[in-house]
């Protein structure tokens, strides 16, 4: 980390963007393969002709640009999801280091990179894998202290309080309506976010996530057959975005 801290400002931003591109390529592959039961670590193949891709076909973003978004062997269109995730991941790194240079910025970028696959899986499949939630929580408890100046005890309290709070909300909804209103992964995700940010910033995260989910529901209410109260909202997506956004907001609000 001392080497990363020593990087000049522009180099730090650029290097974080490059790291984000590389991680984004893996994240996109994981999000596409894991729900389908395919190996995340298997050889990459063209979705059209199923031929293995050469190393020069796998350079994040650049390969897609040079091949005009098509397989060099059969001409099939490459799913633009790969490039979109790579760009998003690069922007996470660049934004984090641009706003918070040094160790705090790298930790903020790491939080964003760990949240990204969870957000995408929830948005596409309403699925928040326990293993990813566990990795996020463990990284928060072990590493996140310098990010917002939180003590380990604060992060433990945040993890426990966040998980219990969301579990109680889910239980209350189920008791009131007789149906599940929240997936089992949502309380675990909020617990993992609490392990990163501590209990102090959790109300801000939950408020932002709730507002995001409500806005999404209102904007999309005319695009489905189900009534608004019966529509499934990817709360994990909005919780992930809220957690990433809450870092600079909470530091600004708390004057740290």
Automatic annotation (TrEMBL):
Membrane topology value: Multi-pass membrane protein
Transmembrane spans: 12-35, 87-111, 131-149, 156-173, 193-220, 232-253
Function, in words: Plays an essential role in type IV pili and type II pseudopili formation by proteolytically removing the leader sequence from substrate proteins and subsequently monomethylating the alpha-amino group of the newly exposed N-terminal phenylalanine.
Keywords per UniProt: Cell inner membrane, Cell membrane, Hydrolase, Membrane, Methyltransferase, Multifunctional enzyme, Protease, Transferase, Transmembrane, Transmembrane helix
Lineage of the organism: Bacteria, Pseudomonadati, Pseudomonadota, Alphaproteobacteria, Sphingomonadales
Native source species: Sphingopyxis witflariensis
The protein's name: Prepilin leader peptidase/N-methyltransferase
Catalytic activity: Typically cleaves a -Gly-|-Phe- bond to release an N-terminal, basic peptide of 5-8 residues from type IV prepilin, and then N-methylates the new N-terminal amino group, the methyl donor being S-adenosyl-L-methionine
Cross-referenced InterPro entries: Peptidase_A24A_bac, Prepilin_IV_endopep_pep, Prepilin_pept_A24_N, Prepilin_peptidase/N-MTase
Biological process annotations from GO: methylation; signal peptide processing
Gene3D superfamilies the record matches: 1.20.120.1220
One Pfam family matching this protein: Peptidase_A24
EC number: 2.1.1.-, 3.4.23.43
């Amino acid at each position: 980390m001392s080497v990363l801290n020593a990087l000049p400002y522009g180099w730090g931003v650029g290097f974080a963007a490059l790291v984000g591109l590389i991680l984004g390529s893996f994240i996109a592959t994981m999000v596409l393969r894991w729900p389908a039961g395919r190996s995340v670590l298997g050889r990459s193949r063209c979705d059209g002709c199923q031929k293995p891709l050469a190393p020069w076909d796998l350079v994040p973003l650049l390969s897609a640009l040079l091949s005009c978004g098509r397989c060099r062997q059969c001409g099939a269109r490459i799913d633009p999801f790969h490039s979109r995730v790579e760009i998003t991941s690069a922007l996470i790194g660049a934004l984090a280091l641009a706003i918070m240079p040094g160790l705090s910025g790298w930790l903020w970028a790491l939080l964003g990179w760990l949240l990204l696959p969870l957000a995408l899986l929830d948005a596409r499949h309403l699925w928040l894998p326990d293993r990813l939630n566990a990795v996020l929580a463990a990284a928060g408890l072990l590493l996140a202290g310098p990010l917002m100046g939180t003590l380990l005890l604060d992060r433990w309290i945040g993890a426990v309080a966040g998980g219990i709070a969301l579990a109680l909300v889910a239980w209350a909804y189920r008791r009131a309506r007789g149906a599940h209103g929240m997936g089992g992964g949502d309380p675990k995700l909020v617990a993992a976010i609490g392990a990163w940010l501590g209990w102090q910033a959790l109300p801000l995260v939950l408020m932002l996530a709730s507002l995001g989910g409500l806005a999404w529901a209102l904007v999309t209410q005319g695009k489905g057959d189900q009534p608004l109260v019966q529509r499934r909202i990817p709360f994990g997506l909005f919780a992930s975005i809220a957690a990433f956004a809450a870092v600079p907001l909470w530091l600004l609000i708390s004057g740290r």
